[in-house]
Request: fold
Amino acid sequence: MLTSREIVATLEMLQSEHLDLRTVTLGINLMDCVSDDLEKLCRNIRHKIKTLARNLVPACNQISDKYGIPVVNKRISVSPIAIVAAPFNSRQMTTVAQTLNDVAAEVNVDFIGGFSALVEKGLANGDRSLIEAIPDALAQTERVCASVNVASTRAGINMDAVLMMGEVVKAAAEKTAEKDGLAAAKLCVFANIPQDVPFMAGAYLGIGEPDAVINVGVSGPGVVRKAIDRALEQHPGWDLGQISELIKRTAYKVTRVGELIGREVADSIGIEFGAVDLSLAPTPNVGDSVGEIFQSLGLRSIGVPGSTAALAMLNDAIKKGGAFASSHVGGLSGAFIPVSEDLNIAEAARNGYLTIEKLEAMTSVCSVGLDMVAIPGDTTTETIAAMIADEMAIGVINAKTTATRLIPVPGKKAGENAFFGGLLGHSVIMPVNNAQGDNPFVLHGGRIPAPIHSMKN
Reply:
């Protein structure tokens, strides 16, 4: 139970610090929907999702009103469609995506994730069909999100899949050129993807998960920033160890609120509660920025020297505080640095403080990777694949999750603006080294072997 002091602190967070529960995500196992008849498969998928999710949004709204804590997004994640729809070709996979989109609209969730494939060690027929379908599937739907895991610490990096994803990212963006490549913003390429991510675009329900489960994603970068500002105003001599302790305690409070809401939603719809993702997920709103935390810590901007060390401290403190507050921690859990979704980070990129190279270095200590990065539309598929491969290598070698959401904005060049709308925000298009050059390295294909520390048994 929350103590009276925690309740008072939470009320203050709600009133002035942008505290919210960023997402409640209902995971649904679709493996019992499998059929080699496309019409029957789609009918089974629609029936199961409607049965389990029909009360999700009303329950979230009711509990949100009860506590006065906004639940910003209500989402669904499903079993990897590459497995569920394995017998079908890419055109038929697109039909499955449209079914997912339609039923998501019927139950009124914001996004549905799980148009996904796990190909870190090789590609099966269903994987190939799904990957080929991604550009059309994302361009023709509004709510469907896709993810492909191309690498893991245990398997290494599937460079054949990496090259395919370079082509898919480019094609998805071109099919939504009138929206600045929006389809690519709904596609994540992963290394070491968790099975219980509640955040989009990477959410899917892993094979080892329950038949249905509620996972929640907490946020609160504004809460952390205000806590640091208050503390340093009162104690200007605090060192970084003391600031880290403050962040840890703040993350504890935020996580307690998230678990409370998540468990009540799960109980109200009769579904098992799963995990809390502790991530600090920003929005394009003023005062709700991870980038602003760096300024509160004394840096001119995110991206200047010291940013990687500051992010490492922030990420670690969030994990420590959240892990103590919750009985089940999952997902990504840490600090997100999505360029277009964070007003302050987007401004740092515009002003030249944050480059792609520095951003890549910072992903070695954050909870995801090159996230919501707009790049020139004429960037070659080989260069995009090479950027993906670099990020996958960081995840594989460090045994952590990394990902890319790269958006080659059709018809636009570095320095111009890209607008994605809503939570996806807007950003300057960042320059890419060798954007139009060839890259024979990625054309070798094959699999980069797993590092020696993969043999943990």
In short: Residues 240-269 form the longest helix (30 residues). Residues 24-191 form a domain with the Anaerobic Ribonucleotide-triphosphate Reductase Large Chain fold (CATH 3.20.70.20).
